[in-house]
Amino acid sequence: DSNTLLRSIYKNTYACFYLRGGADDNVIDNCTITSSGSNAYCCYFSNDGSTTPMNNTVSNCTATFINGSDGIEIFGLTSSLSSGNIINNNTITCGGTSVGTRCIYLEECTSNQVYKNNIRNSEIGVFFNNTNTAATNHIAHNNYFASNTIGIISANNQSGKVYFNSFYNSYAALDYWTGATSSFKNWDIRNNIFYVSGSSGYCILYGTATTAELPALIDYNVYYVPGVPTMVTPQPVIPPLPVGKRPIMMYLPVQREMKIQ
Q: For residues 191 and 166, what is the distance between their CA atoms, to the nearest angstrom?
């Protein structure tokens, strides 16, 4: 199926939208979607074993999954990564933060955009998961993450961007996936608010000590973990700005800014 525009209210116990194989160039727009099954999805774009879905859009939707695993999932192939997909301006809410729940799950995907979404109340807000290490250029910007355990997890993705997001989560804003070759290699991570409420949380949790696997740039972020009273490092003093100019973002004390496992 291609070039499908859907605007309505959908309720189901498994998948409200299940598009498989060569499901390219579809648009799901301005829908209210509720999936209430034990293994449910609001929108599921899947490969059929030989063909990968491409260039699909989910936008302006209110998506709620009560007991299931994923709100929006796109599942490509290791040999043919799914690309060109856009998930934007949605409110995606999970019924709870139990293990395995993900508001947005992109597997075997590359060069996709996730922006201006309200992502709430799951174990993982967004999971970029690949076994193909050639996956690159995912972009997540201007999203609001609230009441998730983890904001974003990345596995084997390179050269992506995370900017102008607000993270309010209980364990980590950005996290790695155990067993992945790399997580945020050469990523650009700027102008985010990282707020972690847990007593043992981290703003950025990284799983390698190899310099070559680290992000390319981390700058202009706000880090705050109020439940952790130690490891406070002040940010550099900002020089006075020219008259009429405003700072991009205010600096706060850093608490557990990054941990390398």
A: 9
> 29 has which bridge partners?
59
**Residue given tokens 């998948």 in the structure block:** 15
Please answer whether residues 85 and 108 qualify as being in contact, where contact means their C-beta atoms are separated by less than 8 angstroms.
no
Residue 159: which residues within 8 A CB-CB, separation 6 or more? Answer: 136, 137, 185, 186, 187, 216
Query: Hey, which residues does 35 pair with through a beta bridge?
Result: 12, 65
41 token code pair: 């999805």
Q: What is the pTM of this model?
A: 0.85
- Strand 254-255 and strand 232-233: the pairing is antiparallel
17-68 per-position pLDDT tens digit? 999 988 899 999 999 999 887 777 899 999 999 999 999 999 999 999 986 6
The answer to whether 209 and 180 have CB atoms below 8 angstroms apart is no
The DSSP-derived string for 78-104 is TTB-B-S-EEES-EEEES---TT-EEE
Cα–Cα nearest to 136, from 178, 176, 83: 83
- What is the DSSP code (8-state) at residue 218? E
